[in-house]
Write a structure and sequence with these properties.
- The chain is of the alpha/beta class.
- It has a single domain, classed as 60s Ribosomal Protein L30, Chain: A (2-Layer Sandwich).
- It is built from seven helices and five strands, in the order αααβαβαβββαα.
- The protein is globular and about 45 Å long.
- The chain starts with a helix and ends with a helix.
Length: about 200
């Protein structure tokens, strides 16, 4: 009887461990464990999260597109101008642009279209004097992350989203880990400059 209990317990143990280690713990927030662990250890991740939060509060992070198009209209360019002005204030920071589509069309086509939209935004930023080495347009979610779940033509889903991605490598030594001090200095300085511009415009 004792042997039977031991055998059953061993079988249950093997069954419980039949999934990949960590598979049930990963909820999608740490898809690249090595990268995220590195960012946490050097203190960079918290600043990236904070900067991205500030970016989305200060400027609209998203623009929209016409159906089956990757061209920028006047409204989109006006928003991207505001994004570009913000990005220029932080030369040590990298940004990533994600492209999305609605659900009309094949998944493969929509993924390519989403990427073209992201690339259009990166090209526009580059035309404003922002180095392409600080910009990424390599990720496209296509139709897989809609804001509004529908199979029809939904403009809100046809979008790009600009986000803070991390820090430029060449700045690592120069900053000596003092990311917070640099961010605070530039952010406070830019706030003063923006107030001066607003006062000048008002007068």
């Amino acid at each position: 009887m004792k042997k039977l209990i031991i055998i059953c317990a061993a079988a249950l143990s093997l069954t419980a461990c039949s999934y990949e280690a960590g598979g049930r713990l990963d909820q999608g927030n740490f898809g690249n464990a090595t990268m995220n662990n590195t960012l946490i250890q050097n203190g960079e991740l918290s600043y990236v999260v904070e900067l991205n939060s500030r970016f989305s509060q200060d400027v609209p992070p998203m623009i929209n597109f016409d159906f089956d198009k990757a061209t920028l209209d006047a409204t989109s360019r006006a928003i991207l101008d505001r994004q570009a002005d913000w990005i220029k204030q932080f030369p040590e920071v990298r940004f990533r642009v994600y492209g999305h589509t609605d659900a009309v069309g094949s998944s493969a086509y929509n993924k390519r279209l989403g990427l073209r939209r992201a690339q259009a935004v990166v090209a526009y930023f580059a035309s404003k004097g922002i180095s392409r080495s600080r910009l990424e347009a390599i990720a496209s979610f296509g139709e897989t992350q809609p804001l509004i779940v529908t199979q029809g033509r939904e403009r809100a889903n046809r979008r790009t989203v600009t986000e803070v991605a991390g820090f430029v490598e060449k700045w690592d030594g120069e900053l000596d880990g003092k990311y917070g001090a640099v961010i605070y200095r530039d952010y406070i300085g830019s706030a003063g400059s923006n107030q001066q511009v607003q006062q000048a415009n008002a007068s």
